[in-house]
Amino acid sequence: METASVAARLAENKGSYVAPLFFVSLACALAGSRLGTVLPWALSACALAAAGWAAGGRVPVLSPLSLPVFGFAVLVALHTLLLSPAYTPAGLYHPLLLVLGFLAARRSGERGERNAARAAFAFGAILAAWGLVQIGPLGVARAHAMFETPATFAAVINLLLVPLLAAALMGRRGALLLALLAGFAAAMFAADSRGGLLALAAGFAAAIVLGLRARQLRSKNISLALALLATGWLLAAALRAIPWAGLTTASVEAQPTAQAQAESSQSRLELYALSWNAWRERPLGGTGYLTFRYTLEQGRAQVPSYGESAQTWFVHNDYLQTLQELGPLGLVALLTLAWLPAWFAYRRLPALPQAQRAPVVAAASGLAAMACHALVDFPFYIPVCLVLYGALLGALDRRLGALRESAAAPLLTPPWLRAAGLGLALLAGVLLLRPVAAEAAAAWGMKGFAAGDGQSAAFWLGVARRIEPADWRYHWYAGQFWDGQASVSGRREAARLAAQAYAAGFEANRLEVSNLLGKISVHRRHGKLLDAPADSLTQATWVAQAEALAPFNDAVRRERALLGAAK
Known about the structure:
Layout: H1 2-15, H2 18-35, H3 38-55, H4 66-83, H5 90-107, H6 110-135, H7 150-169, H8 175-191, H9 194-214, H10 219-241, H11 258-281, H12 292-298, H13 318-348, H14 354-373, H15 383-399, H16 415-451, H17 454-467, H18 472-489, H19 492-508, H20 514-525, H21 536-549, H22 554-566
Helix pairs in contact: 1-3, 2-3, 2-6, 2-15, 3-5, 4-5, 4-13, 5-15, 6-7, 6-8, 7-8, 7-9, 7-14, 7-15, 8-10, 9-14, 11-13, 13-14, 14-15, 16-17, 17-18, 18-19, 18-20, 19-20, 20-21, 21-22
């Protein structure tokens, strides 16, 4: 009895770690969403894995809702490693965060789920408060909190707002719940994202349909939910209307006009057409994960609203972008991941105990909101959205009763299967650690470069290239370093290494123009230092390649002008 009591206390202590670990994971994923670097993604993944360990539950590997999660993640990772012409570590870490969020929530019991929910709502409350400060005292037109765009902010808020809204519709009460609901609603209206508002409406509708299916929806609850949404709208409007001290009329950003919104809609249509045409050129395998930026550079003439310099990585329709980048199989995988949960919840709701129905409706409604948001924006490409989506999906999977705790009857795993799992885990660990190590080595090398320590810079940039030869960025960093050394010292070896680094970078990613431009520049400026400098005809061929990749790029135009002047 004493041993059992100690074990129970240890399990309880582990469960108390779920909230801080999940909060840290969300914070790191937010940083990764903004910075687009590997280290925050890796830290978020580690915190999620630790949260799953702290949750402590044992569950079978497969379930009806785990198949689309694992299937989508494996497809993206394999496509990134084996098929994509433009490797990016995001193709490994984005699906990893989705899977780990899903597994951590599946392993959580009632207590672990409450702790994770508290962490998520605290995280969302901080974001919402900052967004409201932006539209109030700071005079920002559209709140975006710590994100790049209001649409991303709205997507994250919806993943917290819609489940609370569904809980209110199912009769849940409490001062904290109602206050959070009104605050998140105010943040949503502060973002003024049309995609976010569309997703909110879709989530609200899904909650009503599922609530009717669960036979727990009451008309007075609908009135309460609408009143809380109206309160949020009034709060956002009041914050904008208050004449804050220190703000002048000139310092307050203007709200988007109807004309600006119409132009934005036209831009979306142009992006959709460009992505569709790119898919038709590679209808089976796709162009590669996160390659739409290159598609935009090549086909910028088809998107006149973006001019010659505006950038975006996203089509603003995740389904179309997935079709372009991963092909039809990828689209099927994403559609299943996005829409199966709500359908599965709808089918299973009548068979669930009464106490389980409200949490199921809440989770399924939040998932449906993001699935709809993906029609007009890009939430499935944002790390923090993937963490929250995975967590909601894992909680839904556990609540639907597809999983069973197995403490009483442990699952017997054959030795060969354990060995295979260990081998796959080691392989995955190597693949995931490589980008982290390469990014750290490159950062150290660039630090030495900036400090004038050429020996340290050369060593660590070379290490980064050897660790991740498929990542074009590290060849480009090394090329810049050796190019600078050749310009300063006039050493033949430096010019040769610069040319080699740029050439290797272009071979690693033939969609990226930066290394090709570097190679052209080295042969043009340092031709006398090279053993076999490119002749004018070869350089003209390279410039033509660069123009095909980025016809409106200023650096490409300069190289064309310099080539013409040399003739």
